[in-house]
């Protein structure tokens, strides 16, 4: 899905599937324009190319905002897989935007590969907002990182004194988590917990982390993630009572739920 200056670009199709974009429907500024990408499928990349090309012909400047950077999972070459993130970043660079703004990149590789890039640390902002809403004087609140990678990233961004980090042991053959331990000191019998990360799919790892937190005395458990896929509806987070609320954005998510609090960024 593409937005130009906060207006959704209407795209129709010919019978053979080719895209039709009416230039008279585009709200174009004379100075700087903003394109926003909410990636749904590869057609969005094609439409981005068409619209940026049209703006170039009009000699107007344009910046790009990306809610979730597509192909962030494909940030290296493994076996016979194609390094798709590298090629997508190269394509975006060739479009020569004035600036590329990315919310919470899943991979730091895309930041290294993109020109004129700026990053919004959205999970930090979500965590800060969540802490303000859930903290009280009755119980302390702990920030919980589901793995060492999250601890390394957000430990630098979020200044907080009550921190727990999950340490997972995986079965190398199946990839499944065999054992999960919590690193850190809990000084009370009852506490609240806020799990912080960048991306949630079905949420299996977050559920295992939450189960361990319950064993350790957590009364209420919350989750703050910038990117939440619709597959969260297929997992146990929303269907159970273990995690009370999810704080996220609309970078990917397209559905609503009473347990999800959405901050709109696109």
UniProtKB/TrEMBL annotation:
It comes from Clostridium saccharoperbutylacetonicum N1-4(HMT). This is ribose-phosphate diphosphokinase. GO terms for molecular function: ATP binding; kinase activity; magnesium ion binding; ribose phosphate diphosphokinase activity. Its EC number is 2.7.6.1. Keywords: ATP-binding, Kinase, Nucleotide-binding, Transferase. It catalyses: D-ribose 5-phosphate + ATP = 5-phospho-alpha-D-ribose 1-diphosphate + AMP + H(+). CDD domains: PRTases_typeI (cd06223). It is an enzyme of class 2 (transferase). One of its GO terms (biological process) is purine nucleotide biosynthetic process. PANTHER family: RIBOSE-PHOSPHATE DIPHOSPHOKINASE FAMILY MEMBER (PTHR10210), RIBOSE-PHOSPHATE PYROPHOSPHOKINASE 2 (PTHR10210:SF32). GO terms for cellular component: cytoplasm; ribose phosphate diphosphokinase complex.
């Amino acid at each position: 899905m593409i937005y130009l200056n906060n207006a959704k670009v209407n795209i129709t199709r010919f019978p053979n599937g080719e895209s039709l974009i009416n230039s008279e429907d585009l709200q174009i500024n004379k100075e700087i324009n903003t394109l926003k990408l909410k990636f749904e499928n590869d057609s969005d990349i094609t439409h981005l190319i068409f619209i940026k090309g049209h703006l170039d012909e009009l000699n107007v400047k344009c910046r790009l905002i990306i809610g979730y950077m597509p192909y962030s999972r494909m940030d290296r070459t493994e076996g016979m897989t194609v390094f798709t993130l590298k090629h997508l970043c190269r394509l975006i660079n060739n479009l020569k935007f004035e600036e590329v703004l990315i919310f919470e990149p899943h991979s730091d590789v895309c930041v290294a590969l993109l020109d004129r890039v700026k990053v919004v640390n959205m999970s930090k902002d979500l965590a800060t907002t969540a802490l303000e809403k859930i903290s009280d004087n009755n119980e302390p609140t702990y920030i919980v990182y589901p793995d060492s990678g999250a601890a390394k990233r957000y430990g630098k961004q979020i200044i907080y004194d009550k921190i727990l980090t999950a340490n997972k042991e995986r079965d190398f053959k199946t990839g499944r988590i065999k054992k999960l331990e919590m690193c850190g000191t809990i000084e009370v019998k009852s506490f609240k917990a806020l799990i912080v990360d960048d991306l949630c799919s079905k949420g299996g790892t977050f559920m295992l982390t939450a189960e361990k937190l319950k064993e350790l005395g957590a009364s209420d458990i919350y989750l703050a993630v910038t990117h939440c896929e619709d597959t969260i509806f297929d997992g146990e987070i929303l269907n159970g009572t273990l995690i009370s609320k999810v704080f996220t954005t609309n970078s990917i998510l397209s559905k609503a739920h009473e347990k999800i609090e959405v901050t709109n960024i696109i």
